[in-house]
Design a protein that fits this description.
The chain is 11% helix and 30% strand. The chain has two helices and ten strands. Strands 2-3-4-8 form a four-stranded antiparallel β-sheet, with no helix packed on it. A three-stranded antiparallel β-sheet has the order 1-10-9, covered by helices on one side. It has a three-stranded antiparallel β-sheet with strand order 5-6-7, with no helix packed on it. The structure holds FE2/S2 (inorganic) cluster (FES). Residues 78, 80-81, 83, 97, 99-100, 102, 115-116 line the site of FE2/S2 (inorganic) cluster (FES).
């Protein structure tokens, strides 16, 4: 599992968000870095297995989804046409567009079915301090991110 995504269940962090660099989501993500590079978009307990939530950051819509213990962030736009993926539903590790039925891998954004041919942009997720943080500035490289999250 991606260590960025390990849930932070340490009760010592209940007084979080006090800008104390001793507080870490994990080794690479002290609170100060999270606040500088990421945006908190949801409380962890707002999500549940197989469900998603639409969030907006600076006018851009994202989908935050949970599947098999991981949390994913994708642009809320189908890779086929200009249509919100948030009208669709989660199927396992994919999200299915409700207009023409293409499914997209939640981790890479790659389409698994026609008619979509283009991937959906995916964004980095870090879970820490009871929140889900995303980096909305630019999508990740899906192949690199896949290996990073899977750990191989
Ligand atoms: S608009 Fe999503 S599959 Fe066509």
């Amino acid at each position: 599992m991606n260590t960025d995504q390990e849930r932070d269940d340490d009760d010592d962090d209940d007084d979080y968000l006090d800008n104390d660099d001793d507080d870490y989501a994990d080794d690479e993500w002290p609170l100060s870095r999270l606040q500088k590079e990421m945006v908190a978009v949801a409380w962890v307990n707002e999500l549940a297995e197989g469900q998603f939530k639409q969030v907006e950051v600076n006018g851009q819509a994202f989908i935050i989804a949970e599947a098999h213990g991981l949390i994913y962030a994708l642009a809320d736009q189908c890779g086929h046409e200009d249509y919100p993926l948030s009208y669709g539903c989660i199927h396992g590790d994919t999200i299915k567009c409700s207009l023409h039925g293409s499914r997209f891998d939640l981790l890479t954004g790659f389409p698994l079915d026609e008619p979509a041919e283009l991937p959906v942009p995916v964004y980095r997720v870090v879970v820490g301090f009871d929140r889900v943080w995303i980096d909305p500035r630019e999508p990740v490289d899906p192949e690199e991110y896949y290996h990073e999250v899977k750990g191989y």
